[in-house]
């Protein structure tokens, strides 16, 4: 029995310039909709307090580029952050990534990686921040609830030319020089409702404050209508498209790297803890995996040894040759 990690990386496409989401589980409509109005009032008030200067944001010594969204989970913020880090590094820039470290136990300012050495791993560190640190040699990754404090700590040690802020559109405490906001091509605004009645973290009009919009997982054969909708609604925002494509398969144990073609026809049981597991399933189907079953876990799930043992038993019972998951889940 082998465990394969399906490794993905953000790719840019067309850098020249719905479907509706369900209600969040656990909230019936008659409860969720009224609560969403209170949530929206709080979200608008908080942003307005910072924009008018009644609450102060703080600056870092180098430019800050934020990669964020206005929906809950699943738009590709972390892969795009990695893509930008590689891009800036190739241009000779010193880059530091700042992350909240969601899912990790550490809340204080933490140097997860100095670019040469990894100091922590999940569950002490959040799996997305750990994935960034592992994927990006030469790029320090700092985490903390205060990204300003994390940035100052990184500045004292590394003197970066640029900071990349992962999931930063709602982190008003830190001033940004560029706000990139990601939208999923299949459902850019979900069902148009705010939490908990829908996936929106802020009202759609907030997108007019972004410096640029990026429509991720874009397929021109089925997402052109959503692209045109966004162009009409937000004509002043530059709108880019991007795809997220698998790049390789990593085997465990042994660490062998195989081509994607090795998954074609493979009898496998898949598992993942993702905000939108359907995207992972569609990817596996596109690669020709003979999927015998799929086990979904909550987003940012910390897997216990007994859960992995149970997955191995289930895979053997179903006659699978391998278990398949994402590199984020295997972090």
Automatic annotation (TrEMBL):
<dbReference type="GO" id="GO:0009029">
    <property type="term" value="F:lipid-A 4'-kinase activity"/>
</dbReference>
<dbReference type="GO" id="GO:0009244">
    <property type="term" value="P:lipopolysaccharide core region biosynthetic process"/>
</dbReference>
<keyword id="KW-0444">Lipid biosynthesis</keyword>
<feature type="transmembrane region" description="Helical">
    <location>
        <begin position="23"/>
        <end position="42"/>
    </location>
</feature>
<dbReference type="InterPro" id="IPR027417">
    <property type="entry name" value="P-loop_NTPase"/>
</dbReference>
<keyword id="KW-0418">Kinase</keyword>
<dbReference type="GO" id="GO:0009245">
    <property type="term" value="P:lipid A biosynthetic process"/>
</dbReference>
<keyword id="KW-0812">Transmembrane</keyword>
<comment type="function">
    <text>Transfers the gamma-phosphate of ATP to the 4'-position of a tetraacyldisaccharide 1-phosphate intermediate (termed DS-1-P) to form tetraacyldisaccharide 1,4'-bis-phosphate (lipid IVA).</text>
</comment>
<keyword id="KW-0547">Nucleotide-binding</keyword>
<protein>
    <recommendedName>
        <fullName>Tetraacyldisaccharide 4'-kinase</fullName>
        <ecNumber>2.7.1.130</ecNumber>
    </recommendedName>
</protein>
<keyword id="KW-0067">ATP-binding</keyword>
<dbReference type="GO" id="GO:0005886">
    <property type="term" value="C:plasma membrane"/>
</dbReference>
<dbReference type="InterPro" id="IPR003758">
    <property type="entry name" value="LpxK"/>
</dbReference>
<keyword id="KW-0443">Lipid metabolism</keyword>
<keyword id="KW-0441">Lipid A biosynthesis</keyword>
<keyword id="KW-1133">Transmembrane helix</keyword>
<dbReference type="Pfam" id="PF02606">
    <property type="entry name" value="LpxK"/>
</dbReference>
<keyword id="KW-0472">Membrane</keyword>
<keyword id="KW-0808">Transferase</keyword>
<dbReference type="GO" id="GO:0005524">
    <property type="term" value="F:ATP binding"/>
</dbReference>
<comment type="pathway">
    <text>Glycolipid biosynthesis; lipid IV(A) biosynthesis; lipid IV(A) from (3R)-3-hydroxytetradecanoyl-[acyl-carrier-protein] and UDP-N-acetyl-alpha-D-glucosamine: step 6/6.</text>
</comment>
